[in-house]
Amino acid sequence: MKMEFDIASGDFKKAGRASSQIKKVLKQLQVDPKIIKRIVVAIYEAEVNIVAHSFGGKLTAHINGNSIEVTLTDNGPGIKDIEQAMQEGFSTASKEVRDMGFGAGMGLPNIRKNTDELNVTSEWGVGTTVWFRNQF
């Protein structure tokens, strides 16, 4: 099963739409609730990162038998130092984003904690791709 979602830059009201819809499907497939929680946390964090830090992007989820693979791609500005961005508390979020309660620097660390496999690639000025997989 393949699910695709467009994610708009700056639209915090719609952040979480993809994770919510994917959660419903995983519940219908009777996936363990603890595993669903891990998957949904990772997807939500990735969605919010696109909303807060990019010019928009796309999420694609493939559910195959006993796993889910999620790919998120965004358009610019990219991540200068992925290793640094993976550190808890590091954030490049604007003051406006932080004032809304986002941008605490936990997005990528939370994705890493809640996925079985994770790969982040980025090109400065072009964009970022986050891919992860979870087994269930």
Summarize the structure.
The chain is built from five helices and five strands; from the N terminus they run E-H-H-E-E-H-H-H-E-E. The protein is α+β, with helices and mostly antiparallel strands. The protein has a five-stranded antiparallel sheet with strand order 1-2-3-5-4, with helices on one face.
CATH class: Alpha Beta
Structural class category: alpha+beta
Which strand order does the major sheet show? 1-2-3-5-4
Number of helical segments? Answer: 5
Order of H and E elements: EHHEEHHHEE
CATH architecture: 2-Layer Sandwich
According to CATH, the homologous superfamily is Histidine kinase-like ATPase, C-terminal domain
Stretches where pLDDT falls below 50 for ≥5 residues?
none
What integer value in Å does the Rg equal? 14 Å
**N-to-C span:** 15 Å
Stated plainly, the CATH topology is called Heat Shock Protein 90
Compute the number of structural domains.
1
Q: Quick one: how many beta strands?
A: 5
**Largest sheet: number of strands, sense, barrel closure:** 5 strands, antiparallel
**Basic shape:** globular
Tell me roughly what share of residues is in helical segments: 25-40%
Could you tell me the strand content as a percent range? Answer: 25-35%
Q: Average pLDDT value?
A: 95
